[in-house]
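wait is this the right file?? whatever heres the structure
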């Protein structure tokens, strides 16, 4: 049965930035498909845990600050201690800083690039080593952006890091496909989360963006669930190094 290939029963998934927004939507989706979900964030994940448990799903919270390189070992070690293995990694945690490029600070560059790019690579590397040790293969799903394709304005470190995510997705897939590791990405369009609060509060900007989304609406965290379950499941075993847009058709315009 083709639908059985989408099931994630007995799979263990790590999702970073799981307490809110897209990470919350993807964690709930993975849990509903049967995965045990390890929720990673700096703040508590109460709302995500409540939603997962309400639907009889299973999850486990690890508090970690991804600005700290040591959190990589902590996340993987605690996951193995709790569930004995890992099968799926979703590199979702990400931040954005808005300022004119002419005034952009080194701090706003380093903090964004550290979380959105460097930690995505090194957490993936750490988890890939685990997949190789387990001889199990595994899935890595990165979160890219429309700014992996376009330049944007006033977000230079974000554009740099999200463009890098698309490239890293390809190189990791190239090198690790031979271990049955699939590395792919999801590029969300304009979604209603904290990340876009500033531009949504600017009514002109909000409507300008809305007017070019063919679907006629901004995206929601629930819109991410289908793509992440597909990329986490054996239904996507021959999909490697690709970035899927979940954007209501934004890139098609
Ligand atoms: P969000 O609501 O701001 O969520 C960001 C998440 O990242 C939070 O869970 C946050 O947890 C976590 N995070 C940030 N810094 C962290 C750190 N130092 N350590 C651990 N976790 C950290 O934004 P979102 O829109 O859901 O963003 C999720 C991903 O989607 C990001 O990679 C973003 O770039 C990408 N994206 C979003 C959109 C959009 O339109 N919303 C579009 C394209 C791509 P804490 O609160 O604990 O810090």
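ok assuming it is, sequence goes like this
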């Amino acid at each position: 049965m083709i639908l059985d290939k989408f099931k994630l029963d007995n799979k263990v998934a790590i999702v970073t930035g799981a307490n809110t927004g897209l990470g919350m939507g993807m964690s709930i989706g993975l849990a509903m498909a049967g995965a045990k979900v390890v929720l990673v964030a700096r703040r508590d994940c109460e709302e995500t845990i409540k939603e997962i448990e309400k639907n009889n799903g299973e999850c486990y919270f690890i508090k970690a600050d991804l600005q700290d390189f040591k959190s990589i070992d902590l996340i993987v070690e605690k996951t193995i201690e709790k569930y004995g293995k890992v099968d799926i990694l979703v590199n979702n945690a990400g931040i954005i800083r808005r300022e004119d490029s002419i005034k952009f600070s080194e701090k706003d560059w380093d903090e964004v690039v550290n979380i959105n790019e460097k930690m995505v690579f090194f957490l993936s590397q750490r988890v890939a080593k685990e997949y190789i040790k387990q001889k199990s293969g595994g899935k890595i799903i990165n979160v890219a952006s429309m700014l992996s394709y376009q330049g944007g304005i006033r977000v230079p470190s974000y554009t740099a890091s999200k463009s890098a995510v698309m490239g890293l997705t390809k190189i990791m897939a190239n090198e690790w496909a031979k271990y049955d590791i699939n590395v792919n990405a999801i590029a969300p369009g304009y979604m209603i989360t904290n990340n876009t609060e500033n531009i949504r509060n600017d009514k002109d900007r909000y409507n300008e963006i809305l007017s070019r989304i063919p679907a006629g609406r901004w995206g929601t965290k629930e819109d991410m669930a289908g793509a992440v379950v597909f990329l986490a499941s054996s239904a996507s075993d021959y999909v490697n190094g690709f970035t899927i847009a979940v954007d209501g058709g934004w890139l098609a315009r």
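The beta strands are 12-16, 36-41, 58-63, 88-91, 138-143, 181-188, 243-246. so i think its the right one actually
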